[in-house]
Recover the amino acids of this structure.
């Protein structure tokens, strides 16, 4: 009798495990379907920038585009100027030293060593214009590069060794009229070639991800979810979630 009870118990347990697995798989499939539907819906901008009066002009310099942006988005520059994308440093608490500020601006790494002496090249990936040496004024909002992150025309690109300025042949008017949420190429233009070349600094970030297949990246594969970086790395008041390094001192 005892053996029969044990067998009945094991049988019931097996049935529970089978039904539990089926229930889990059904719900997992349902959840995945909801996610697939959510991310398959492309963002529709609420504003057509090509119709804005402030952008119906030729721009002599990229700072003029920034001034036009700020004329409508009146407080956003203040948010940007508090970010690591602008300051190239973050506030951190280090035991024994207290609150300190560290980042690309002053840290040494084993790829590029540091930016000192190479600002005109390194700051190609700064979210601003004109950082050519340590005299750069971080309080001047007109030097914020809004387009680097928000260009949706696919035409914008920063020049080499020009301290963050774009190539001279970039049509600033057309670019300014076609802006929106950051796309994969906005982020990848700087983050994929980090360290001076494609896939050099970050082993999981490289140009193949611009149009990756699902077997390369399950999230951003164009034959799968086709997600953008900002789907996970969301921003609140221009503060992006996620960071690469944790400052420490010995």
């Amino acid at each position: 009798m005892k053996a029969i009870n044990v067998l009945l118990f094991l049988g019931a347990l097996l049935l529970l495990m089978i039904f539990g697995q089926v229930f889990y798989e059904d719900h997992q499939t349902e959840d995945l379907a909801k996610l697939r539907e959510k991310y398959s819906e492309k963002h529709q901008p609420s504003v057509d920038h090509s119709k804005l009066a402030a952008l119906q002009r030729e721009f002599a310099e990229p700072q003029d585009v920034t001034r036009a942006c700020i004329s409508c988005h009146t407080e956003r520059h203040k948010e940007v100027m508090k970010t690591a994308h602008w300051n190239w440093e973050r506030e951190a608490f280090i035991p024994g030293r207290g609150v300190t500020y560290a980042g690309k601006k002053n840290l040494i790494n084993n790829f590029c060593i540091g930016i000192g002496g190479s600002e005109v090249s390194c700051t190609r990936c700064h979210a601003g214009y004109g950082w050519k040496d340590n005299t750069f004024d971080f309080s001047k909002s007109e030097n914020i590069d809004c387009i680097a992150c928000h260009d949706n025309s696919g035409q914008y690109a920063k020049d080499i060794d020009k301290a963050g300025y774009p190539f001279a042949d970039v049509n600033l008017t057309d670019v300014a009229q076609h802006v929106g949420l950051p796309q994969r190429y906005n982020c990848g233009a700087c983050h994929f070639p980090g360290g001076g070349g494609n896939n050099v600094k970050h082993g999981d970030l490289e140009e193949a991800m611009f149009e990756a297949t699902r077997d390369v990246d399950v999230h951003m594969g164009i034959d799968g979810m086709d997600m953008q970086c900002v789907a996970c790395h969301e921003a609140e008041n221009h503060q992006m979630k996620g960071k690469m390094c944790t400052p420490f001192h010995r």
